[in-house]
Amino acid sequence: MRKSGFDWKDFLSRIAVIAVPVALQNLLTTTGSMVDTMMIASLGQTEIVGAVGLCAQFSSLMFSCYWGFVGGGMLFFSQYWGAGDDEGINRSYGLTLSCMMLVAFVFASLGVLFPEAVMRLYTDKVSIQRIGVEYLRIVGFAYPLMVFSMAMAALLRCTERVRIPLYGSIAAVGVNIFLNWVLIFGRFGLPAMGVRGAALATVIAQGVNAAVILLLAKRSGHPYLLAVKKHFHWNRPLIRAYFRKCFPIIMNEALIGAGNMVINIVLGRQPEDAIAALAVFRTLEGLVIGFFAGFSNASSVLVGKEVGAGRIDVAYTRAWRLVYLCQGFIGIVCVALIALHTSVLTVMGMRGESFRLAFMMVSVYAVAALIRMGNWVQNDTYRAAGDATYGTVLEIVFMWVMVVPCVYLTGMVWKLPTMWVFIACYIDEPIRYILMQIHLFRGTWIKPVTPEGQAALKGWKPKLTAE
Predict the structure, then answer these.
(1) Three-state SS across 244-279?
(2) Which of 93, 161, 272, 372 is deepest in the core (most CB within 10 A)?
(3) What is the sign of the dihedral through the CA atoms of 206, 209, 212 and 215?
(4) Looking at residues 107-111, what average pLDDT do you find?
C-alpha cells in the first residue's frame, strides 16, 4: 500500500471542533441524569429509581420514533451544506421539524393523558406503576420542548455551529439540578414534591434549553434556524426525495424501537433490585453514548459534507478512520467506568443485590460497547452519505430474528437469571460488525443527493489512500 497523503492534523482538528462540543453536551446531560438518580435514590425507595428508569424507556421509544427524521434530515442538511444550497437546507429543516413535532405531541398525549396504560405495559409491579404514573403525567409536557431542541441542534451541528446546543445544555442541566434540589426536597419554603418535583424540574429545564438555543442562534445571525418563512416552501420533488431517503431510517428506528420496547417489557418483569440496577446502568450507558454521539455527528457532517460537495475520495478516507477512532475512545471511557464503578454505583444508591447486578451489567457492556458503537457510527456514516438501507436492513433483521426471541425466551419462558437476559441483548453485534466492515470498505454506501456529488461519483472506485 502506498504511503497515505491523508492530513491527520486537519482531520483530528475537524473532529475536535464538532465531536468535542457534542460529547460535552451529552456528558452534561448524562451528568444531570446521574444527579437526578442520586437525588431520587436518596429518598430511600428502590421502587422510585426503577419507576423513573422505566419512564426513561418510554422516552427512548419516542426517541426511536423521531430519530428516523433526524437521521434523514442530517443527510440533507450536511449534503446541502457542502453544496452551498441554502434553499435546500431551509426546506429540509422545515419538513424535518414538522415530522418530529408530530411524534412529540403523540407521545406527550400518551404520557399526560394515559400514564397508567404506559406503566402497565412496562412493568407488572404495582408499586413501581404508581410512582411512574405521577412522574409521567408531568414529564410528558417536556417532550415537545425536548424534540424541538433536538431538531434545532441537528441543524446547527450540520451547519457547523456546534457550540450553541452545548450552551443550551449547560443552562438546562444547571437549572435542572438546582430545581431538583428545590422541588424534590422542598427548599425555600416550597413543599417537598418528591418524584413529581423531579418531573417538573425536567419540564422547566427543557424550556430553558430551547430558549437559550433560539436566543444564541438569533444573536449569532444563523442564516437558517430562524428563517421560518422559508422552512415550509416545500415542493413535490423535495418531499419525494426526503421520504425516499428517510423511509428506511424511519422504519429502522420504529422497528428497533418496537424491539427495544419488547426487551424493556421483559426486563420490567425482573425482580425489583434488577429493575433499579438497570435504571442506573442506563444512566451510565448514557456516558458512553454521549462520547459516541460526538463521533456520530462528526461522521454525519465531515462525510456528508464532502459527499455533497463531490469530494468522494476525502469522504471515503474519513469514514473508516472515524470508525476506528470512535472505538478507541469508547474503549478508554469503558475502562474508566469499570475502574470507578464502586464509588459511582454507591453514590447512585446501589446496595447489595442491586449493586452486584449493576456492576455485572457495566462489565458486560464495557465489552459490548466497543462493537456496538462501531456498528452505530458506521450506520450513521452510511446514512450521511446517502445509503439509508444497508445498515437498516441488518439491524432490523438481527433485532427481530435473533435478539428479541433470545431475550423473550431467556426472560419469559426459561425464567433465567437477569444477567442472561441482559447478555442476550447484545448477541447480534459481532456478526453485524463483520458485515458492516465489508460494506464500509466496498464504498457502495456513497450515494449523493446533490448534482455535484452525483457527477463526481461516476467512475469512482474506492481506495484506502487519499492523494
Answers:
(1) HHHHHHHHHHHHHHHHHHHHHHHHCCCCHHHHHHHH
(2) 93
(3) negative
(4) 95
What's the CA gap between 296 and 294, in Å, rounded?
5
Whole-number Å distance between alpha carbons of 363 and 361: 5
Q: How far is CA 365 from the centre of its chain?
A: 17
Instruction: Say if residue 466's pLDDT is above 60.
Output: no
Residue 311 CB coordination number (10 Å): 17
Q: Which of 34, 265, 62, 40 is nearest to 131 (CA)?
A: 40
Q: Which three cell numbers stand for residue 191?
A: 413543599
The single-letter DSSP state of residue 446 is B
Which amino acid, 63?
F
Neighbours of 370 (CB within 10 A): 18
Q: How many whole angstroms separate alpha carbon 104 and alpha carbon 63?
A: 9
Question: In angstroms, rounded to a whole number, what is the distance separating the alpha carbons of residues 349 and 446?
Answer: 47
Q: Grid cell 418524584 — which residue? A: 195
Contact assessment for residue 348 and residue 279, using Cβ atoms and an 8 Å cutoff: no
- Model-level pTM? 0.72
Contact 203, 138 (CB under 8 A): yes
Please state, as a whole number, how many other Cβ atoms lie within 10 Å of the Cβ of residue 156: 24
Give residue-wise pLDDT tens across range 147-194. 999 999 989 988 878 789 889 988 998 999 999 899 988 898 888 888
What is the rounded CA–CA span in Å between residue 285 and residue 281? Answer: 6
User: Which amino acid is located at 78 in the chain?
Assistant: S
Angle in degrees, CA 372, 27, 30, rounded to 5: 85
Q: How confident is the model at residue 464 (pLDDT cuts 50, 70, 90)?
A: low
